[in-house]
Specification:
By secondary structure, the protein is α/β, with parallel strands linked by helices. 43% of the residues lie in helices and 13% in strands. The chain contains 20 helices and 14 strands. A seven-stranded parallel sheet has the order 3-4-2-5-6-1-7. α12 links the parallel β10 and β11. The protein is extended and about 120 Å long.
Length: 517
């Protein structure tokens, strides 16, 4: 089917001809006629099938046919990632180049004040990520009471990222009398039973390819690996010996992406890195370098698995196997787009074997085992397999464990730590009585010490205390008080002559003794 056969405005046809968009893809041929009638649609199609144009062209046609200059935003497109939002924005601007329609983008990573000013300009089409748009709506910056079209692209990914509550809240604040379109590469039960039921109203379901039928033009291979170091050497060999224009290497962690980037940058190929720890300016720069053919190899996390539309990606390498079948589908969907041929190679270690088997069963497709002398290692696959193909787990011998338990008494930490200590009775009554006896003993000892200190204090009179303190003060100040004390007449105590009693330092004599409890 030719795009010129569709009922579109001349301005749109002019833009399509200048972009060399002549023939409609299967998803465009199915979706555009239904969307032009204003019906809700639920579409499942593989990545790279042209879903973006399938919802953009009907939106532009609707706005050009029925103008409403007094309204605000007329079409809202929600996407899971910033990269996908900017990609749709670029394609939309190409389509509206001969029209007065304005397009805006609201994503994380940009300042609020500039985005707030964008809302005041009332762009007819707004492309946004759910998290940042929800914040603006809570602050009262956005109003969608006059919204005409709502699009959820890559809806399954938004659910996987935990945006279901934000998406449903945004939908509840939009105009009820609207057209809604939902696009996804996979239609899960969570998607169909949750978001789709809240967003769509009596939709027309279009399923062009099931999960098992997708990516028939992509050759999918696996290579067995011994360890992380073995994977690195295998990746280096593939980069040197495979023929490709651009390659995409996926990892499951950001740290590993940085490590591989540093390892490959010393070679002949130009390498870029893309992951979530990078700020928006860096991410935009890397993608622009990739599109301008200044980067040959892009090492990325699953951030690039969706929305990355770069031509001539011939090779996709899964350095770490994807965590789920859906993630794997979107990874390999970066190659073999629009009917082109592609190659995907997954490096599988022993602990990733079961994950690989799960993905094979999900896709109902057996990966091709690649035997290359330079890539081979010691790991040839698990020795024992279940009927499902998974590794047989090691089971413990219960009989042997029971025999050992009977022969040797069980050693408990609570028994070891109390060795040599007086045990507290287990009976509550006896335990409380023992604690009471211990408290009485401590009280008696404390009283005995206090009485001994009081008896010692009573043996000294006031003059002894004052004289001892005076002598100690003089010693501290370095003064010689010997002569002064000799000229002074001795004071007689009212209690009798006690001159024969040795003088002691009053401070030391009556210093409080530490308790012995």
């Amino acid at each position: 089917m030719l795009l010129s056969d569709l009922t579109l405005q001349p301005n749109i046809h002019h833009a399509l001809e200048s972009l060399q968009f002549l023939e409609a893809t299967p998803v465009q041929a199915e979706v555009i006629p239904i969307a032009l009638e204003g019906k809700d649609v639920l579409v499942s199609a593989e990545t790279g099938s042209g879903k973006t144009a399938a919802f953009l062209l009907p939106i532009l046609q609707r706005m050009l046919v029925s103008t409403n200059p007094a309204s605000g935003t007329r079409a809202l497109i929600l996407v899971p990632t910033r990269e996908l939002a900017r990609q749709i924005n670029k394609q939309c601007r190409d389509f509206v180049r001969y029209t007065p329609i304005k397009v805006g983008v609201i994503t994380g990573g940009d300042e609020f004040k500039y985005q707030k000013a964008l809302f005041r300009k009332n762009p007819e089409i707004l492309i946004a990520t759910p998290g940042r748009l929800h914040e603006h709506m809570d602050r009262g910056h956005a109003d969608f009471t006059q919204l005409e079209v709502l699009v959820l692209d890559e809806a399954d990914r938004m659910l996987d990222m935990g945006f279901s509550e934000e998406v449903l809240d945004i939908v509840s604040r939009c105009n009820k009398q609207r057209q809604s379109m939902l696009f996804s590469a996979t239609l899960s039960e969570k998607l169909l039973g949750g978001v789709a039921g809240e967003v769509l109203n009596d939709p027309t379901t279009i399923t062009l390819n099931s999960v098992q039928d997708q990516h028939e033009n992509i050759r999918q291979e696996i290579v067995l690996s011994d360890s992380l170091e073995h994977k690195e050497s295998q990746l280096g060999w593939l980069i040197k010996n495979e023929t490709f224009v651009r390659a995409l290497v996926f990892t499951n962690t950001r740290n590993r992406a940085d490590k591989l980037g540093g390892m490959l940058r010393g070679g002949e190929r130009r390498v870029g890195i893309l992951h979530g720890d990078m700020d928006q300016t860096q991410r935009n720069y890397v993608l622009q370098q990739m599109r301008n053919s200044r980067i040959d190899i892009l090492i990325a996390t699953d951030l690039a698995a969706r929305g990355l539309d770069v031509k001539n990606i011939d090779l996709v390498v899964n350095f770490d196997m994807a965590r789920s079948g859906d993630d794997y589908i979107h990874r390999i969907g970066r190659t073999g787009r629009a009917g082109a041929k592609g190659l995907t190679i997954s490096l599988i270690s022993a602990y990733e074997w079961n994950r690989m088997i799960n993905i094979e069963r999900y896709l109902r497709h057996t990966f091709e085992r690649r035997d290359t002398a330079e890539l081979k290692g010691k790991f040839k696959g698990p020795e024992k397999l279940k009927n499902s193909g998974k590794t047989v787990g090691t089971k413990k011998d219960k009989k042997k464990e029971d025999k050992v338990a009977k022969d040797e008494p069980k050693q408990r930490h609570r028994d070891k730590k109390n060795v040599g200590k007086r045990r507290t009775p287990t009976d509550p009554t006896l335990r409380d009585a023992a604690r009471e006896v211990e408290r009485e003993a401590k009280a008696k000892e404390k009283l005995r010490v206090q009485r001994a200190e009081q008896a010692e204090f009573d043996e000294w009179d006031d003059d002894d205390i004052v004289e001892g303190a005076t002598e100690r003060s003089a010693e501290r100040l370095g003064e010689n008080t010997t002569e002064k004390t000799e000229t002074k007449p001795a004071k007689k105590s009212v209690w009798g002559d006690r001159s024969d009693k040795p003088k002691r330092d009053g401070y030391a004599a009556f210093k409080k003794k530490p308790r012995k409890d």
